Amino acid sequence: MILNNLIKIAILDLLKNTHLPVSLYQIITHLRSLNLVDERQGNLALFRLNFLVMNALFQLQQELITEQLYLRISSLAIRLEPLHKTDQTALSIIDNDESLRQYYLDWNNLTNTTEQDVEALLSRFWKRFLSADKRVDALLVLELPVGADWSTIQQSYRRLAAQHHPDKGGCPQRFIEIREAYEILQKSDKSCSTNR
């Protein structure tokens, strides 16, 4: 694919001319400034643009190993690093990214993905994001750290519920907040255990 070759050349040029890591956003901005990608909006267009860039990055990662260079790929920090023959760390990182690499190197994932597929992906992402956000808020209500286990959550709930129960002179609104936080964490704990 000629466009992909032009994108790879432009990305490699950008990476070789900077000593700092670059983000995926910076790469896309650079490609747009060179008129190598279009400015179309919409979720499907952004998915396709992201796919093209990630495809080019994973191709470059494979190709640059022969030049003793390792391309570290993360959405916030993409950079070229020297690869020493004895450096197995980078090669093991490449192995760990295998499913992601295979996804972006398979052109069928670009051509077969529809607007509805992208919307479903975004919907699942936001559900997980909002669920995690609600969990953190609920832990704060129960005066707990983010990593609290279920036993600690139950203990804190019992203590705070007893302290703020309206029958014992506590604030009804605070008691309701505590109860709702506990229920959120209970649901979150059940969904996490079923996804394990």
Automatic annotation (TrEMBL):
Gene3D superfamilies: DnaJ domain (1.10.287.110). Residues 137-196 form the J domain. Keywords: Chaperone. CDD domains: DnaJ. One of its GO terms (biological process) is ERAD pathway. GO terms for molecular function: misfolded protein binding; protein-folding chaperone binding. PROSITE patterns: DNAJ_2. Pfam families: DnaJ, DNAJ_related. InterPro entries: DnaJ-related_N, DnaJ_domain, Hsp70_co-chaperone_J-domain, J_dom_sf. This is DnaJ domain-containing protein. It comes from Spartinivicinus marinus.
